[in-house]
Structure to design on (288 residues):
């Protein structure tokens, strides 16, 4: 059997990409590649940046040659009419039309929502930073393969300021929490299927800590932290847990359980997407 062909679409600006690399050593797309290669050893993984001016994004025919497309998080706000956003939405519409299964984290869910006719807005309940707490499945979500293996309520790495306001017509709400009503969803549009989450199953905890440090001023403005020292202290605890995931004292202090501290459980939605949608679709298409 030939290896899976996976495409990661990164929508960070060049400036944000370099800030992230300076902070944690990788762009969002590069992190996704590392995570996917660990989950699917031997997969052929490519990276594109469709939001960038002059970037050569695959057309629909080329997209159909992939087994899955993954959309990363992004600092872009899809409700802003900018060239970058227009290019990103056009790419996502091509992904839907290609019929290739797609998955998105955080802004990836928002891009898919907007491309299929839904709406996104600034989060009315403020920023969700570090962890999305007490995510719970809807009735539809409890039986959906995207969330297979998740308990009745779970936490997940999350850093976002925007949220899905209204899902597209042919979409299914799968999970939510007290901060964002849409934490997981399935979207069917133009012959394609997208599974996505508002949180970050692809992120290792040290990169989550880096994201908090980069957004320290915003966290202080939101009154989530008193000062940068408080942000750094919290981030340092998360980094320490990354280095020693078995430290029960840190997990207790941060209020986390193995749904976050165990990498395989943290990546549940990515693994489910590959096993329950990508591989069956590949077989249905007759690819050996």
């Amino acid at each position: 059997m030939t290896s899976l062909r996976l495409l990661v679409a990164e929508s960070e600006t060049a400036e944000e990409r370099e800030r992230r690399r300076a902070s944690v050593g990788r762009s969002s797309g590069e992190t996704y590649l590392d995570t996917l290669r660990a989950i699917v050893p031997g997969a052929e993984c490519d990276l594109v940046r469709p939001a960038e001016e002059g970037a050569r994004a695959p057309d629909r025919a080329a997209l159909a040659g992939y087994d899955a497309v993954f959309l990363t998080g992004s600092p872009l706000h899809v409700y802003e009419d900018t060239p970058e956003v227009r290019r990103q939405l056009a790419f996502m519409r091509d992904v839907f039309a290609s019929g290739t299964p797609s998955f998105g984290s955080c802004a990836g869910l928002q891009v898919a929502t907007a491309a299929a006719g839904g709406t996104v807005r600034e989060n009315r309940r403020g920023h969700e930073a570090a962890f999305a707490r007490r995510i719970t499945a809807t009735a539809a979500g409890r039986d959906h393969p995207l969330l297979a293996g998740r308990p009745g309520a779970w936490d997940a790495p999350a850093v976002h300021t925007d949220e899905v306001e209204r899902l597209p017509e042919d979409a299914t709400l799968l999970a939510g929490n007290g901060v964002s009503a849409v934490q997981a969803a399935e979207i069917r549009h133009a012959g394609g299927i997208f599974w996505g989450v508002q949180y970050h199953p692809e992120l290792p905890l040290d990169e989550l800590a880096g994201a908090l440090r980069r957004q320290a001023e915003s966290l202080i403005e939101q009154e989530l932290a008193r000062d940068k020292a408080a942000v750094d202290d919290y981030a340092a605890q998360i980094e320490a847990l990354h280095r020693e995931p078995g430290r029960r004292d840190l997990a207790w202090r941060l209020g986390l359980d193995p749904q976050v501290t165990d990498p395989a459980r943290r990546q549940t939605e990515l693994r489910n997407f590959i096993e329950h949608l990508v591989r069956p679709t590949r077989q249905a298409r007759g690819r050996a």
The chain has two domains: 5-203+263-284, 205-258. The chain is about 40% helix and 20% strand. Residues 77 and 111 are 9 Å apart (CA to CA). The first strand starts at residue 5 and ends at 9.
